[in-house]
Amino acid sequence: MVDGLPNKKIAFIIQARMASTRLPGKILMPMPIGSNKSTLFRIVEGVKKIKIQKKIYIATSLDTKNDPLEEFCETSNIKCYRGSEDNVLSRFIDILKSDEFDYVVRLTGDNPIIDTNFLEKSLAAHANSQVDYTITKGLPMGMNFEIITTQALLSLEFQKLTEEDEQHVTLFLRESGNYNTSVFDIDENENLKELRLTVDYPSDYLVLSAIFSIGHKFKIPVDLDLIKFCKDHYSWLFEVNKSNYQKKVYNSLEEEIKEVRPLLQEYEFNRLSFFFKSKNDEI
Q1: % of the chain beyond a pLDDT of 70
Q2: Which residues contact 184 (CB under 8 A, 6 or more apart)?
Q3: Taking the CB of the first residue and of the last residue of the chain, which one, N or C, has fewer CB atoms within 10 A?
């Protein structure tokens, strides 16, 4: 049992869908290649290891493309909720209304590495801080967690939200200033947090597949220790998907320009890079 959470009930909600612009069906693809276990299975497998009162949900939409996810839930003995395609937040709210939970952990179907040690620590930190929302930092992209107190998330139903707020679930909690938020800083090797361990592009899938295969070969559990091992012995592996672009929500034109300049420089669009630098200086 996780310290500090003996009587707490947690909803682990994994938002997932089969549609993907860059890699359709990625969440049910084998992880690693040749395995009989999917990317989504790996996430559920990780969550099930945590010794705490919990229920695991796949939150997807009513689109018929997501029918295989419902079948996955039936065979994995977990719950499936199907709701709005665009209003992802409403899926979370409906799930939390169906039972009595203290906290919810938000996960996504394209992040297959769950370090249960850090997840348990971040859950305990959230409970002890008594804040509305906790996000971890310091882990590689795709390994951090978001933990929300149930009442805080349910209160979003009565807020005036944008389409982006509804789509990105925790955006209003993080950005509105109306909620108590905290960052659980995982003080690890600074270089690790720059690594990309989410599955969006085919190259991401190949990197994660290689990591799982290396873990199997050397009998190392798939957690941060395995990532350190791969970084030490196969550092080139993380160059494969290093330049992949991650979608984000930007609050201003200045933020967008700041983000796009390194991409332009990397692909040697020097004139455009200089142009955007000038525009940023004007702002």
Answers
A1: 89
A2: 121, 122, 125, 126, 134, 135, 136, 137
A3: C
Reported in sequence order, the residue ranges of 42-87 that DSSP labels E, i.e. its strands, are 53-61, 79-83
- Over 90: is that where the pLDDT of 270 sits? no
173 and 107 within one domain: yes
The whole-model pTM stands at 0.87
Nearest Cα residue to 140 out of 93, 190, 89: 190
What is d(CA 178, CA 14) in angstroms, rounded to the nearest whole number?
A: 25
- Domain range enclosing 170: 9-185
- Confirm whether 212 is domain-assigned: yes
Type of residue numbered 253 = L
Which residues share a beta bridge with 224? none
Q: How many domains does the chain have?
A: 3
